[in-house]
């Protein structure tokens, strides 16, 4: 039985961190360093979800890390067939998705949104749904710091004040209701349900924080120019 290479990292498919991948095949790309070094595309499979990954590897010898007489960790230095060989990882494909909040969103709200996005990617749909609701709850409190109302009342206040559209207010109520139901409902939250709530949360945050932040940033040079004219 031939050996395989083992690489550890974050799976771009299931999102599991520090999981191991086993190589299943490799293909020679080119010779490198004007000598006997070689570059390989090595095809790996995640041991958690069976998703595929291609790792770009440089070998200091004329062979790659897959299909040798023993299992090898990459990157690393190994003694194979009476010679020392080093394997360097250059790149991996595909990349794990970047989980980022929209611009200008306050830190605590952004953290809840990012966690919701990460949990959706990891197929933790119920957790993702509840974190989306948390982000909405924190956002409405930030927008209405003096309000003593619960989430539903804050959403109504924002709608009546024109800070969100009537359509967004209606959709925000769906997020609230789904978030409450998920705590008590025995039915599993589907990926589609969690993804819809996350999509609304992103839209709400952009409308509430990103657009005003962009407008304020564009106004700043004009305000500075006017102040400079007054000072002169």
What ranges have pLDDT less than 50 throughout 5 or more consecutive residues? none
Number of strands: 7
Overall pLDDT confidence: 88
Structure classification: alpha+beta
Structure description:
This protein is α+β, with helices and mostly antiparallel strands and 232 residues long. The chain folds into 2 domains: 5-93, no CATH class; 107-219, Four Helix Bundle (Hemerythrin (Met), subunit A). It is 45% helix and 24% strand. The protein is built from 5 helices and 7 strands; from the N terminus they run βββββββααααα. Strands 5-1-2-3-4-7-6 form a 7-stranded mixed beta sheet, with no helix packed on it. A hairpin with a 5-residue loop joins β3 and β4 (52-59). α4 (166-184) packs across α5. It is elongated, with a radius of gyration of 26 Å. The mean pLDDT is 88.
Topology diagram in text:
Elements lengths: L4 E5 L9 E14 L4 E10 L5 E8 L12 E2 L2 E5 L2 E11 L13 H15 L3 H19 L7 H10 L5 H19 L6 H41 L1
Parallel strand pairs: 1-5
Antiparallel strand pairs: 1-2, 2-3, 3-4, 4-7, 6-7
Helix pairs in contact: 1-2, 1-5, 2-3, 2-4, 2-5, 3-4, 4-5
Question: Key terms for this structure?
Answer:
24% strand; elongated; 2 domains; seven-stranded mixed beta sheet; 7 strands; Four Helix Bundle (Hemerythrin (Met), subunit A); alpha+beta; 45% helix; 232 residues
Task: Give a short synopsis of this structure.
The chain has 232 residues and is an alpha+beta fold. It has 5 helices and 7 strands.
């Amino acid at each position: 039985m031939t050996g395989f290479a083992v690489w550890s990292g974050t799976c771009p498919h299931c999102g599991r961190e520090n999981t191991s991948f086993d190589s299943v095949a490799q293909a020679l790309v080119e010779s490198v360093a004007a000598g006997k070094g070689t570059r390989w595309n090595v095809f790996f499979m995640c041991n958690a979800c069976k998703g595929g990954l291609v790792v770009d590897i440089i070998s200091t010898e004329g062979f790659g890390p897959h299909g040798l007489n023993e299992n090898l960790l990459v990157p690393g230095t190994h003694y194979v067939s009476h010679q020392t060989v080093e394997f360097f990882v250059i790149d991996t494909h595909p990349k794990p998705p970047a989980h980022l909040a929209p611009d200008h969103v306050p830190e605590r709200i952004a953290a809840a949104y990012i966690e919701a996005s990460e949990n959706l990617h990891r197929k933790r749909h119920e957790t993702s749904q509840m974190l989306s609701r948390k982000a909405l709850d924190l956002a409405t409190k930030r927008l209405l710091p003096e309000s003593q109302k619960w989430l539903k009342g804050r959403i109504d206040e924002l709608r009546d004040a024109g800070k969100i559209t009537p359509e967004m207010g209606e959709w925000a109520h769906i997020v609230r209701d789904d978030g409450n139901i998920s705590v008590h409902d025995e039915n599993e939250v589907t990926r589609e349900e969690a993804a819809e709530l996350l999509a609304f949360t992103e839209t709400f945050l952009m409308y509430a924080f990103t657009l005003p932040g962009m407008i304020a940033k564009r106004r700043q040079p004009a305000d500075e120019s006017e102040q400079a004219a007054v000072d002169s």
